[in-house]
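Thread: "does anyone have the structure for this chain?"

Original post by V.I.:
We have the sequence but no experimental structure in hand. Need at least a predicted one for the grant figures.
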Amino acid sequence: MIKDTIKTLSTSFYNNPLLYFPLFVFLGLVLIFVSLSAPNDDKSIELHKAFFTDTASSLSVEQVMNKDASSFVAYEQQARVMFNESLWFKATVPLALDNDQRLIEITNSSIDDIQVWFISNSTQEIVASHLSGDSLDYYQRPVLHEAFLFPVPSTSEQLTLLLKVTSAGALEVQTRVWDKLDFIAYDGANKFFVGAFAGAMLVSLLLCGMLYVFTMDQKSLVFAAFLFCTTVALLAAHGILFKFIWPESVWLQARATIFFAAAAAAVFIQYSISELSIKSHSNVLYRILLAFKILLIIFAVYSVVLPNALLMIGVALITAIAYSTLFFAVLKLSMSGLVPRNLYSVALASLFITIGLIALDNYGFLEIGTRPINVLIVGVLIKTMFMTFGLATSIAYQHRLDTIIETNEPISRTPLETSSEQAQSNTNSSDDEFTQTLEYKVDERTLELEIALRELSDVNKELERLSSTDALTDVMNRRFFDKRLLAEARRSRRERTMLSVAVFDIDFFKKINDEHGHMAGDECLKQFAQVLKQNIKRPADVICRYGGEEFVVIMPATDLDGAVELMEKVRSDVERLSVEFERSTITFTVSIGLTSKVLDNEEEKDAVVTFADKLLYQAKASGRNKLVAKPFSMETDPAVEL
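Reply from O.Q.:
Generated one for you, tokens below.
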């Protein structure tokens, strides 16, 4: 049965090179889709920088601060090779919209030395400074994280970021400003993504180990070595290993990525030479690949003494040429119709498509939407999947061929076309036992991986919830309100439904704080939020704390009359509310501004909130503990009707 299936596949698909092109196109589309689903940083702000090169690395921060603006040129987001010079960057830090903590992130995790200064634009004084980079051990970083993070000083002044970067090798410097809670949510998604990659590679390693135990085929160990070196190289480039494995080994962090990348390429070439029988097909090709392998081994061994820039250029160039040579050689060998060799073509194609996507993103022709290393991880995963399947198929084929030879069965045709009933009866039992054991082990590891991924997903969802919730009142916060208001405004415009917005303000709240203390004021805010939750129960309605003692409620598909009835119920419930705090009983009232409108465009959403806010102040001016509700009108200013 298996023999007939392999034969059918070989003749109907794998032996037809015209079908490779649509397969590669489909693979490219899968890569793009998975890359776009990787964690993105759209909640951060990219800083637009200017820079100049300090070739001698001798300038001080004071000298750079005194340089004219003409000394700096706009920085284009492209990788550049550096040796001993330093790059100075200057960028304006956007003003904070609230008092939330913010972080500056440098997305490249492989920079030797980073110095950061925050300078006040008004006084031209240094407000804060930090040191980081791979030349320092992990525990010396200002924020303990695998990425380079720097806390932005909390100030109302406009700040300028001055950044000095010194590194050897290919360098790309992208800086982003994050709200701390947004970064926590992004970091959870990113860790989930990297954890999924590490888990998938671990499953592949275990599969190779099981194949070796059951078949004693040396190719499984060589392929396992390739998987191990590739995984270590990518995790080291991501900064994960520096954080968890060698946080105090600066030397190892500086060399790990390039050493294991060169080792992975060398092992892959050796595995390909053996698996594809390159020497028997072309002695010239065999010698070329052997030379590439030796050069990569030399680069790996001498990584302790050669400059990192030379290593990066050499390994990248040799690997690209070797992989290209292998790809075209495999395409030619695939004409023989053997499944593993066709899978090799697809595996190498996935890597080339990945590198192409990264290059297009780097030069601005394509917006991937995630970090280049995440795209590379996706490509490596797809390549590993096809190569693992190719290895298993190759070993299964060789095992069956050896079994036929050992039984001395005369073979008049190819091994895939003939075998005797005696050979089948001798091998069926062992094949079934091997298959069942292998499937059990794979299912067991897959279940463990699914449990770990589910736990990571739950943590990520909890981080998303925390980043959108007000910690005191447990209702949604201002950030969530802005996003939801935009979504409901679009729905109102699209579906032509009424959108109602109510703004609340607790009357004389400052007096409560002054007489009973801020803890009592916090308790009043909590109790008021509970009243809102008890009355506003529709899943589509949203309660948000707007700031201080102000709250806002978004009510989609609700006309003014319905909203008035509901808001009057809230006002009366608050009027009857008594808050027991320590030995005091606190009562308070609330003023409400309410308006409704079918939005004609998204820009009207801010005008609706402003109109409701003016109605709120009309309610307070007319004696407080009032609800003032009017249909939205651009021509009418409610403030003039006081």
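V.I.: this helps a lot. The longest helix spans residues 421-467.
O.Q.: and DSSP finds 18 helices and 19 strands in the chain.
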